[in-house]
Amino acid sequence: MKNTNSHRLYDEAVKLMPGGVNSPVRAFGAVGMKPIFIERTKGSKIYDADGNEYIDYVCSWGPCILGHSCPEIIKAVKDACDNGLTYGAPTEKEVILARMINELMPSMEMIRLVNSGTEAVMSAIRAARGYTGRDMIVKFKGCYHGHSDGLLVKAGSGALTSAVPDSAGVPKAYTDNTLIAAYNNKASVKELFDKYGDNIACVIVEPVAANMGVVLPEKGFLEFLREITMQYGSVLIFDEVITGFRLGLGGVQEYFGIKPDMTTLGKIVGGGMPMAVYGGIKEIMECVSPVGKVYQAGTLSGNPIAVSAGIAMLKMLSDKPHIYEEISIKAEKIANALESIGAYVNHIGSLLSGFFTDREVKDHDSAVSSDTAKYADFFRYMLENGIYIAPSQFEAMFVSYAHSHEDIDKTCNIIKNFQ
Ligand SMILES: *Cc1c(COP(=O)(O)O)cnc(C)c1O
Question: Phi/psi class of residue 345: alpha, beta or left (left: φ > 0; alpha: ψ in -120 to 50)?
Fold first, then answer.
């Protein structure tokens, strides 16, 4: 496979941007090679600067659940552009989108649009603190909630891959109020509540974790979080930036039937444009400015192009709810292929991870028992064979509606021949 153009671009990029990229995992650091530069996409495929074609299972880290360059979404964006790119004033489209989100996820009685998942989580936590008048928050080791200061504590995703548990540049004082529990470990949560319960503003969790690789909640874990937060008057925040509209139209909260107080959405909800959402019960959301005293704002928030893409995406998904079953079946085939080569697989809906470990993966500690050198070999082998998977063991594999049976069968055969 020829990579001349990608390598040339990378050599120039590293002089201008840290690692040559605008988000760390893209630099391929965990798999020990130079990144490929993407030129265009279509359906299940991405094409790099040297014209190589790959079946893509990164799907822009989640947004492209309908595949790349979905014609209906592209059309919605193009049409919206004719009316201008930004107004900084309210629009009918925001009302339409808010209504759609509210109908699909009734726990989000009121919402606010922001520009990234990081911003959504940061703002949700501020609202939870404002509402409760408490300072402390509980997060889980291995869950990733974006790169805001208070949450870069033993974060997953890029921070985990590069083996830097905390980030430089975050003052100690900013994380003093962040408490860490272990995923799927009720006792670790109970311990924190026993000690600090009356000062815990919220518990934030990826209700299906997907940033230490995919890790499913054990039976009763989410129910327990619902109960203990209720008992102490803390806010339960589901970070559904990955899982929202991915595990079904109603996210994990519908899938497992648990109602959080607040929810954050991103990735799919923007249809590929930079947009994210936070929201929840009215009582909490009415604490947000200008109604309440929790300040939060954004020049480009509710951007008409992004909102148009989001509406088109949610419309497509609502019109074809059968897609969820279909992509889940396709993902299962890949899960089976990964199991056949000895990986430990976690799979739910169209999300899966194959861990190169003998242990059962149910939390951060078991996830990091994986053989990352073997994963790097696997990644390079897949890429050589025209399959693009995440350049890190600790990310999910995303299956989209655009992946054909032929794509899936080809992928499975290539996986099975890995040694
Ligand atoms: C991606 C992600 C974020 C951060 O979203 P950005 O848009 O990258 O800022 C937050 N939470 C979860 C669960 C995510 O997967």
Answer: beta
The answer to whether 144 is a known catalytic residue is yes
241 ligand 1 Cβ < 6 A: yes
Give the distance (Å) from ligand 1 centre to CA of residue 274.
11
Spatial strand order of the sheet with 200-205 comes to 110-114, 276-280, 262-265, 235-239, 200-205, 136-141, 178-182
- Cα angle 202, 205, 211 (rounded to 5 degrees) comes to 145
Q: Which domains does the chain have, with CATH numbers?
A: 4-57+321-416 (3.90.1150.10), 71-319 (3.40.640.10)
Beta bridge partners of 262: 237, 280
Q: Is 286:292 a contact under the CB 8 Å cutoff?
A: yes
Low-confidence ranges of the chain (pLDDT < 50): 155-165
For ligand 1, the distance from its centroid to the CA atom of residue 298, given in whole angstroms, is 18
Residue pLDDT, tens place only, 239-284? 999 999 999 999 999 999 999 999 999 999 999 999 999 999 999 9
Of 154, 267, 330, 362, catalytic: 267
Most informative mutation of 211, 265, 277 for ligand 1 (most atoms within 8 A of CB)? 211
Residue 57 a catalytic site member: no
Q: Which of 18, 20, 23, 25 is nearest to 10 (CA)?
A: 20
Structure-token pair, residue 180: 């860490």
| pLDDT for the residue 161 | 35
